[in-house]
Amino acid sequence: MESPLSNSSVGSARRFSLACEPNAVRPTVVAVRDFLAGQGMGQDELVACELALVEACNNAVGYAPESARHEPVGIQILCEATAIEIQVIDHTAGFELPAAADLPAPDAEHGRGLFIIQAMMDEVVYLRGSIENRLVMRKRRTSQQQSPQPEVPDVHARLALNEDVIRGMVKELCFRSEELAAIFRCTSELGKNNNPQEFSRRLLGDLLHITAADWFILRLLDKDGSKLVVTNSSLQDLKMEALCIPTRSAPLNDSEEQGVSHEPELPAEQRVAAHRIDVIFGPAFPLSENDPIILAQPCSSGVVRPIAAGDTLLGTLVVGRDPLEPPFTVEQLEVIHTFSDFLAIQLINARFQQEHMDLRLTAHELDIARSIQQSLLPKTFPKLPGFGLGGFCLSARQVGGDFFDILRVADDRVLLVVADVMGKGVPAALFAATLHTLVRTLAEWTDRPAELLSRVNRLMYDELSGVDMFITAQVAMVDLTQGRLSVSSAGHCPILLANHRGEISTVSPEGMPLGIVPDVSFGEQIIHLEDCNFALLYTDGLTEARNAHGEFFGEERLLNWLRQQFAKHQSASQLAEQFKAELSSFQSQIALSDDQTFLILAQETAPTVASENAEFDGAVTLAVPERAAL
């Protein structure tokens, strides 16, 4: 198989050519990484360059216009002793590079690429040109140069009945009575079985009888709304291909303005769908010999009418007569108009009813999903000598991407987990459930939070990166025997710690969110439990909660609340209830914009004598009373 890369090497410079296709990005980036590794770059620098290059290439391919798809995306590498320069040459319309790209909202579909590129590289410049553009990314080198290694290849304006039908009703009472009787009869049938297919066949069958027509063809839009597909017909063994809906390119002529079109360029049904007017055909108004109607019923006559409700096109209706039959009279055409408009109303009603049923079914399924997700949360908290636990998880929608877990891995060790899947709703909930299962499975194989996160990342990378999602997580192992708290983070909010003197600090070991790169190492920080009187693990839905004035709860408000509650010497469960009440009071009746989760670990035995009566934050006197260990 021919390689997708065309490479040339000159010293420490290298050129790559990437086909303008999404599936060509990964093998090209892997080849670039192998080349850089051969130039002696360190692991951290390789990860940064690889991540930035993936985002740059995805942008170059994703925003390339159709006219430039044949142009490859160029990649030029220049390695120097102190720095490396990567140029990505694209053929897009270009963009204005911001001085500093902001991190987009978790549920935003775009904007993370520039943020990641600027975060990973030391210097980023974008040069726009008339023919091509260049994204120049530079990264300083901290690793020593090594000998080059061999390169590895690789989508009810017209709901009333036509008033014209009523005109001449006295003169044609029998004709109209038959028409109305057919409509009422079909409506009654629809109320019994609610089947639009059977209803349309019955209604249009009556239409043929009333208008002395011989056949009909009903086309309705497919699910994508881009093609007309034969849905019902009185013709046996009819085979007609689907028709695309064309865009209108020319103004209506005089006859079209009057509601009749005779232009022969397009098939009649496509013209009707595009212009929303009638097309009359017959010996006086012949259709093209290649028109599907003529191919199905040669030498016939009739009318093609749009099935539409207001501005919403539903399909087209052809009502015809066999050869040698006279064309439809004005009165018969009026009946066809009435029946087609009535059919449109019933099709819209059927669609609304189906959508309503689907919404109710979806709501019921989401309620079940919410119950399942809630069942994954701990029902009771394990008892820890000297410490208590409390937690809370609330989804912004029926289901969400936040969760916490408390897992006793041994008699003297408890694993605390708080995670936040990017986005909300069902996709986030599915990944949260997967993460929950993996953590509980892998926790039996390692007692190091950093190693646990690394294994979870490797197992979930393909699924997360495949849908451009990621997960932040905070994992803490409470080891009572060794008297320590081991903490690792995957790009998550820091843990807030308070010691017996009331001093609050943050713990946030280095670590990239899960799903960004396949192999990544996570930092780990050790805290002595004697220095941990209180620990709070939480998601950013807390600090980003808004009140009626649009103000954020914020980190400062969170810290102030912690200082106040710390001085009250409450248990972990009391603190959790107080925190829920504080959030509810702050947000009032404002709907949640993000999931909210927190987990509290609090010391519930008295501190040492030396720590009693110590000042809290330089102002509040702290005297923790004696409590029985849980």
Short description:
This protein has 630 residues and is an alpha+beta fold.
Walk me through the structure.
This protein has 630 residues and is an alpha+beta fold. The protein has three domains: 8-140, Histidine kinase-like ATPase, C-terminal domain (Heat Shock Protein 90), CATH 3.30.565.10; 163-353, Beta-Lactamase; 377-622, Phosphatase 2c, domain 1. Helices cover 34% and strands 24% of the residues. It is built from 14 helices and 25 strands. The chain has helices at 25-38, 43-62, 112-120, 173-193, 196-211, 254-257, 268-275, 292-296, 330-376, 425-442, 449-466, 540-543, 554-566, 572-587; strands at residues 8-10, 13-18, 73-79, 83-90, 123-127, 133-140, 215-221, 227-233, 243-244, 260-261, 278-281, 301-309, 312-321, 387-394, 402-410, 413-421, 471-479, 484-490, 495-498, 504-507, 525-528, 534-538, 596-603, 614-616, 620-622. Strands 9-8-7-13-12-11-10 form a seven-stranded mixed beta sheet, with helices on both faces. Strands 1-2-3-4-6-5 form a six-stranded antiparallel beta sheet, covered by helices on one side. β7 and β8 form a beta hairpin. α10 (425-442) runs antiparallel to α11. The longest helix has 47 residues, at 330-376. It is extended, with a radius of gyration of 35 Å. The two termini are 66 Å apart. Mean pLDDT is 78; it is low at 1-11, 145-177, 254-263 and 606-630.
Can you tag this structure with a few keywords?
disordered C terminus; 630 residues; 34% helix; Phosphatase 2c, domain 1; 25 strands; six-stranded antiparallel beta sheet; 24% strand; alpha+beta; disordered N terminus; 14 helices; Beta-Lactamase
